[in-house]
């Protein structure tokens, strides 16, 4: 659905995001969908982002450009970042995910040096060099009084420091949207921070949480995490607006294969995502159910360590690896599957992580098998929606029993699509309406002061 903005009495919001089309991956989707649907709730966003020719995007997806509503102003600025130097010195062609952290588990000396430099010279992250350029452009945009509110979205969390400075200078209502935890993100300890660097980073986090007029998070677990910080935070100003799915993206019919039991995983997966039990179960099922053709399909970036584990489990011959594809094509792969596999990184402080892909998995109406922490938000959502099962990383027997039952059901009817999933609350349109209420409430409050 293409949304066109009309000249009506709307709240004008300056939406500051590093990730914007042609960036691909999950980082861009939340902001893009917000900006797509905010006009329907009386909020007119204008986007401040980085020049696409200078940006450090791990992946590109040019299909997202077609979703930007006509009439939305997009302002791009220069940036100053270390990633080109990284690629030249390391010999790697790709920009690392998560700012050098979420890479292969086994790294050499040079990789450790890069991580140390990233963790101690670029605080809070390696994209902080964009801030001075963004602040200069924001000053130009804000000085005429056109905007009534500011929203900054992260990661990269350095973007929140832009909001912090603009709040101090202009006093406009400021919403900080944190898609992930800050110093509690699961790869944080891989960056070899010194005590001084940790203290600086922690202070940045606390300042943002205290001074933002509203904080948006993606899960109840993240809200609890932030409320337990040694900061003066009003619980009522932290709002949970999870990621979601866009009905407009699901244009393909469900066509599960009739001759094979196809389990698909989409997105990036590294050794931190412990799927060993799942691989063991599939290997056992192949021995027990010799009449069923099992197939695994990974769509996206798969680390060499994960590929080695698949090979060690004897599943290399039934596994397909599909490189990163545009988002619309990834949805098509979901709809052509029997079941969907999801995994949450098996690391400390991971409870607050609700993968963005979960909601599109839900919208596909395919049964989900997930490995992750029990009693987490992800576990609760899958259970409440009736969309499948989450298993602990070591729950071998439970997963084996479950997939054995699913295999028997498939033998009777190879279409395991679920008749109904209670996922309407995760529609991007509905979630954006909640954000619009937060924005308009803050603007109305500021007008009364």
Kindly describe this structure.
The protein is of the alpha/beta class and about 450 residues long. It folds into 2 domains: about 10-245 and about 430-449, 3-Layer(aba) Sandwich (Rossmann fold); about 245-425, Rossmann fold, CATH 3.40.50. It contains 14 helices and 13 strands. It has helices at about 25-35, 85-90, 110-120, 130-140, 160-170, 195-210, 220-225, 275-290, 305-310, 325-335, 355-365, 375-385, 395-410, 430-449; strands at about 10-15, 45-50, 75, 150-155, 175-180, 215, 240, 260-265, 295-300, 320, 340-345, 370, 390. The strands form 2 sheets. A 7-stranded parallel β-sheet has the order 3-2-1-4-5-6-7, with helices on both faces. Strands 10-9-8-11-12-13 form a 6-stranded parallel β-sheet, sandwiched between helices. The longest helix has 21 residues, at about 430-449. The chain is globular, with a radius of gyration of 22 Å. Mean pLDDT is about 90; it is low at about 1-5, about 85-90 and about 100-105.
Instruction: Give the termini separation.
Output: 38 Å
Strand order of the largest sheet: 3-2-1-4-5-6-7
Strand content: 5-15%
Quick one: CATH class of the largest domain? Alpha Beta
Tell me roughly what share of residues is in helical segments: 25-40%
Q: What is the typical, i.e. mean, pLDDT?
A: 91
State Rg: 22 Å
Q: Count every beta strand, where a strand is a DSSP E run of 2 or more residues.
A: 13
